[in-house]
């Protein structure tokens, strides 16, 4: 089966610019996750969707980050405006069920963002 | 809030050496524990997981992990590493009753010298 797809793979922008990332989960997976992974750290959950509803966005900096999953399939994550500290790898993951605590998450290749 | 600590940031071993990577978590209730691996140039992928039952869990490629509840630990082991095990390893905990909110450790980079 095809894995989680993400684009672009790399992005370089200047601070205060906007950027958007796209994710297409594994077909049929109900739950989609966006993580931020800063160099030298583990992934940190930003937002979790079940179908097109938000399950958890407690760690999403809502003043500049937004995400949507309109049709319950693919998703976009946007940063507007970007700050230097947003430089990181943005990982998308999906899981088959309702996002329960025992579900295996399948990760995409990530988008590496550099903010200058 | 749950947290995960991985003691070693970088481990260097020779082939055939034994491996043990430490992982400790902080959460007082029932936890689900995972080890993920990221090989160079590849995606994060599941290595093994523990939910309940036998505290010694076996995963892919000869890896195993032992859940010790009294020590809040879930250490990863492999008796004899290979050069192809060179990768970054992440421990993750998922606790609570509803949302699958995983908390990851900061990872351990394993380098295996041929």
List strands and helices in order, with pairings.
The complex is a heterodimer of chains A (116) and B (114).
Chain A: E1 5-7, E2 10-13, E3 19-24, E4 31-37, E5 44-50, E6 53-56, E7 65-68, E8 75-79, E9 88-95, E10 106-107, E11 111-115
Parallel strand pairs in A: 2-11
Antiparallel strand pairs in A: 1-3, 3-8, 4-5, 4-9, 5-6, 7-8, 9-10, 9-11
Chain B: E1 3-5, E2 10-14, E3 19-21, E4 24-26, E5 31-38, E6 44-50, E7 56-58, E8 64-68, E9 73-78, E10 87-95, E11 102-104, E12 108-113
Parallel strand pairs in B: 2-12
Antiparallel strand pairs in B: 1-4, 3-9, 5-6, 5-10, 7-8, 8-9, 10-11, 10-12
Description:
The complex is a heterodimer of chains A (116) and B (114). Chain A is an all-beta fold. In chain A, 0% of the residues lie in helices and 47% in strands. Chain A has strands at 5-7, 10-13, 19-24, 31-37, 44-50, 53-56, 65-68, 75-79, 88-95, 106-107, 111-115. In chain A, a hairpin with a 2-residue loop joins strand 5 (44-50) and strand 6 (53-56). Chain A is globular, with a radius of gyration of 13 Å. Chain A starts with a strand and ends with a strand. Chain B has no helices and twelve strands. In chain B, strands 2, 5, 6, 10, 11 and 12 form a six-stranded mixed β-sheet that branches. Chain B has a four-stranded antiparallel β-sheet with strand order 3-9-8-7, with no helix packed on it. Chain B has a two-stranded antiparallel sheet with strand order 1-4. In chain B, a hairpin with a 5-residue loop joins strand 7 and strand 8 (64-68). Chain B is globular, with a radius of gyration of 14 Å. Classes of the chains: A mainly beta (116), B mainly beta (114). Chain A binds chain B through residues 3-4, 31, 40-45, 48, 55-56, 91, 93, 95, 99-110, and chain B through 4, 32, 34, 36, 43-46, 49, 51, 90, 92, 94-107.
